[in-house]
Design goal:
The protein is an alpha+beta fold and 374 residues long. The protein has 13 helices and 8 strands. Strands 1, 2, 3, 4, 5, 6, 7 and 8 form an 8-stranded mixed β-sheet that branches.
Length: 374
């Protein structure tokens, strides 16, 4: 089948054998908790995908990573979502290397060598606060930081080796908080993992709750930018990576449903072609923003373009999954849980921050010439 050929070829180039492993297993198995796909993802080198090649990683470009996430999403939406959170954390470390003290390079090398999985405890937007404001708080103590906070949902809760997070560090003199990125070993004293996710959709992503209570993070795992008082450009660039990768992941899940219609020749020629037109146009938009990220120095422009592409993809997915499920027919819906599952799972893109409603005001102001302030 022509659709997805390029994406699956890219996946095979970087992570040989993963696509076959996923293709050989039923969707319901891959979407269940503890299904084993995260371990296979590690075995084929998935955690090192976006670590620079000179640090021992696979050095995938953002364009290739977008293609890979779509391919993975077409086989297992849960694995695509979980791995997106890991890649987002790695991307933030990569961006931090431009302004950090050098130890970030050692951590990226260790991630590649040990195939560690990183969960993301970065802020995901709370009412009345900046989308990138830290959700964790830290207090400086001898030897590091004491960190407190709750992250829910937190993908990779049970499989993570490290938790990455942005932290607001309290100034003992009463001044403004200092922003930091921390890496927290999963077995740290004071880190508690509990069940949180109740939906049957995307349970394989392990999106449960992580609670930090006076967790000591050693100084070696605390990273500050050079100026010590502002990290938004680093987080914003990482957030561009997140928006593109998560959009591609859900686009892949929608493509799986369309593939069924194409493979079984359901509907008319125009019905099937229309599905491809919608899907490939959305993918082209994601790829174009990914290419622009390699040269753009305007973080506001890049993040705005990423959000435009994400929301366009969201709308595309809504139309495609409805049209594809109708074309597949009632017996396909009745005969297995796959159609219903994909209808539910693909809708979850709308729940990743920032929501379309939350971003509309800031984007409208940006279009009128103001800075982008999500």
């Amino acid at each position: 089948m022509t659709i997805m050929r390029r994406e699956r070829a890219t996946l095979e180039d970087y992570l040989p054998g993963l696509d076959k492993y996923l293709a050989d297993r039923p969707l319901e198995e891959l979407e269940a908790p503890g299904n084993g796909s995260l371990e296979v993802f590690r075995e084929v080198g998935g955690p090192a995908l976006m670590v620079p090649a000179d640090l021992g990683g696979k050095g995938a470009s953002l364009v290739d990573a977008v293609r890979i996430q779509r391919a993975v999403g077409s086989r297992s939406p849960s694995l695509a979502v979980a791995s997106t959170m890991h890649h987002f954390s790695v991307a933030s470390l990569v961006e931090l290397t431009a302004v950090g003290d050098g130890f970030e390079w050692a951590m990226l090398t260790a991630i590649a060598e040990q195939q560690w999985l990183l969960s993301s405890g970065f802020a995901e937007g709370r009412p009345g606060q900046h989308i990138l404001s830290p959700g964790m708080r830290g207090t400086a103590v001898e030897g590091g930081l004491l960190v407190n906070g709750v992250k829910k949902p937190c993908s990779l809760t049970w499989s993570m080796h490290l938790m990455s997070a942005s932290v607001a560090v309290t100034d003992p003199d009463g001044g403004p908080d200092r922003l930091a990125i921390v890496l927290i070993p999963a077995e740290s004293e004071g880190l508690e993992r509990t069940r949180f996710w109740q939906s049957p959709a995307l349970t394989g992503a392990e999106s449960d709750q992580v609670t930090l209570t006076d967790v000591l993070v050693p100084e070696a795992l605390v990273f500050y930018p050079e100026d010590g008082d502002h990290m938004d450009p680093i987080q914003a660039r990482g957030f561009v990576w997140f928006e593109l990768l998560v959009s591609a992941s859900y686009l892949g899940a929608a493509t799986r449903l369309a593939e069924r219609v194409l493979r079984e020749h359901r509907g008319s020629d125009q019905d099937r072609t229309d599905l491809a037109v919608e899907l490939e146009t959305a993918m082209a938009a994601l790829e174009e923003v990914a290419r622009a990220s390699e040269t753009s120095e305007d973080d506001d422009d890049l993040l705005a373009r990423a959000l435009f592409a994400r929301y366009a993809t969201e709308r595309t997915i809504e139309r495609v999954v409805m049209a594809a499920s109708a074309a597949a027919g009632g017996m396909a819906f009745i005969g297995s849980g796959e159609v219903a599952y994909l209808l539910a799972a693909t809708r979850a893109l709308a729940f990743h921050p920032p929501s379309r409603a939350a971003a509309s005001g800031p984007l409208a102001a940006y279009l009128a010439g103001e800075p982008l302030a999500l």
